[in-house]
Amino acid sequence: MSDSIKNVAIFGATGMTGLATLPLAVAAGYNVTVLVRDPTKLPADHKAARVVVGDVLNQEDVKKTLEGQDAVVIILGTRSDLSPTTMMSVGTKNIIEAMKARGICKVVGCMSAFLLWDRSKVPPRMLPVTEDHERMHELLKSSGLDYVAVMPPHIAGDLPLTESYLVAEGMLKGRAISKHDLGHFFVKCLSTTEWDRKTVGLWGEYK
Fold this sequence. Notes:
Elements: E1 7-11, H1 16-27, E2 31-36, E3 50-53, H2 59-65, E4 71-74, H3 87-102, E5 106-110, H4 127-141, E6 146-151, E7 154-156, E8 166-169, E9 176-178, H5 179-189, E10 198-203
Parallel strand pairs: 1-2, 1-4, 2-3, 4-5, 5-6, 6-10, 7-9
Antiparallel strand pairs: 8-10
Helix pairs in contact: 1-5, 3-4
C-alpha cells in the first residue's frame, strides 16, 4: 500500500473487472469507496468501506464519491452494448473535474488495446466504443493529473490471478489478460509512480 494513498474510489466496480478489482484493493489495505447505480450488483461480502448510490454522469454524485479520497480507478464500460456512447468520456470528464476540485492527482483508467492499433484494423463493430475510449484517453492525457492509461487486450473472466503478467509502454504483445491480473495491475499502480503519465499495454501468458 502507498504511504500517501489510503482511500481509493473505484468507478465501474460492478462490472466484470471492477468486481475482480475491488477485493484486490481491499486486500492490499486500501479503504475503497464505490459509486454504483445498483448496489445489489455488489456481492454481499464486498468489503467496500463506502458505497455511494448514483451515476458517474451526475457531477454531484461524482463529487460526493470523491470526498476524502486520495486516488481514483476508472473501469467504466458498456458491457455488451457496442452502440455509440459518450458515457465513458463524459464520466471521465466529471471525475477529472471533481479530482481537480479536491486536489486528487492519481488516476488509473482502463480503456482498450484497440487504441494501440491502427484504427483501420479495429473491427467495425468495435469502433463506436473505441472512439469513446479515445475521447477518454485524450481527457486523461490533457488533464495534468498523474494518470495511468491502461490498454488491455481481451479481458478473460475465466483465467486466474497470476501476478506475472507483462507490461509495456505504448505497445501490446499478447492477446489476453485475466480480469484478476488486470485488477492487480490497477492496484499496483496506486503504490508506484513507474507508469504515471504513460499509456501502457499489458498481457498475460496463460497455459
